[in-house]
């Protein structure tokens, strides 16, 4: 047997429209999703459905208006009720031009600390506060600024001196290397470096420093003194005679005692002996012998005569 399948074409003939079916499905899905996001309240209102896992909405922090008196003038300042008195001082500084650290805020006849919160102290909307200038705090702040300025100035001066010492240190190291290798350096260069280092010591002594700057100055002083001592050693080594010069002088001095001995030997007295011959004569003795002794300083001649 044979089976047949009959396909029905849409009205108007042709193939069925698949795009219209897809669009209808998307619209249905969107409607279902929208229905899932909405809910009906007991009063019959359709509202957005709430997520039970979501965090509760944060409470809105109210903004309060304060009336701040400075001198004879009043200033209205809007600020958060959970702000601190330090935050209020910053806003007051923008209005009156007074540094926050120089201010004293008084609320209900009591000075308030900068770290305290407004709501904790009982400050409410339209509360009245008084701002005064704290002369002691202002003087303390100015002294601190001056001290910091001096420390910065001292640190800059010490840093400049340290750079100059670094340049001189390289020259000292070069001279030390030459001398350690047995070489000679110009003594004027050594003296000049010592003078320059002593000038740096004078500069360091004139710097007024406290705290960390004082320790930095002490370190630089010790450093300069070490370089001066190194130059003194270089100067001593440079002026010392070389090792082979002394034996030559000793060799030249050794023959001198021999010359003295020879000279003394030449100075010894000389003895001269004279033998006389005899002749047969009446006036002259038959035989005679004479001995003469001669000394270099004074020559004395002695004659011994024999008579017959």
From TrEMBL:
SMART domains: BAG (SM00264). Residues 1-34, 237-267 are annotated as: Disordered. Keywords: Chaperone. InterPro entries: BAG_chaperone_regulator, BAG_dom_sf, BAG_domain, Ubiquitin-like_dom, Ubiquitin-like_domsf. Residues 62-131 form the Ubiquitin-like domain. The keyword Nucleotide-binding does not apply. Residues 154-235 form the BAG domain. This is Uncharacterized protein. It comes from Zingiber officinale (Ginger). GO terms for cellular component: cytoplasm. It holds the Pfam family BAG. GO terms for biological process: protein stabilization. GO terms for molecular function: adenyl-nucleotide exchange factor activity; protein-folding chaperone binding.
């Amino acid at each position: 047997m044979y089976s047949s399948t009959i396909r029905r074409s849409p009205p108007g003939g042709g193939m069925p429209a698949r795009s219209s079916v897809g669009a209808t499905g998307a619209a249905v899905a969107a409607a279902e999703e929208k229905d899932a996001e909405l809910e009906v309240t007991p009063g019959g209102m359709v509202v957005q459905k709430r997520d039970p896992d979501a965090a509760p909405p944060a409470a809105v922090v109210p903004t309060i208006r304060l009336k701040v008196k400075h001198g004879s003038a009043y200033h209205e300042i809007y600020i958060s009720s959970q702000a601190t008195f330090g935050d209020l001082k910053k806003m007051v500084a923008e209005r009156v031009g007074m540094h926050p650290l120089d201010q004293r805020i008084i609320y209900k006849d009591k000075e308030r600390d900068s770290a305290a919160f407004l709501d904790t102290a009982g400050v409410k909307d339209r509360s009245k506060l008084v701002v005064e200038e704290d002369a002691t705090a202002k003087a303390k702040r100015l002294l601190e600024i001056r001290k910091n300025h001096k420390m910065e100035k001292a640190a800059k001066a010490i840093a400049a001196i340290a750079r100059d010492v670094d340049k001189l240190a390289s020259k000292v190291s070069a001279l030390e290397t030459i001398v350690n290798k047995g070489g000679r350096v110009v003594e004027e260069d050594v003296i000049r470096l010592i003078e320059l280092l002593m000038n740096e010591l004078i500069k360091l002594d004139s710097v007024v420093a406290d705290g960390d700057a004082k320790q930095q100055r002490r370190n630089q002083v010790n450093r300069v003194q070490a370089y001066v001592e190194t130059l003194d050693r270089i100067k001593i080594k440079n002026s010392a005679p070389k090792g082979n010069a002394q034996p030559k002088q000793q060799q030249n001095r050794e023959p001198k005692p021999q010359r003295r001995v020879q000279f003394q030997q030449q100075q010894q007295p000389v003895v001269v002996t004279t033998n006389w011959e005899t002749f047969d004569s009446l006036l002259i003795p038959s035989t005679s012998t004479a001995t003469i002794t001669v000394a270099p300083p004074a020559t004395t001649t002695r004659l011994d005569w024999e008579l017959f």
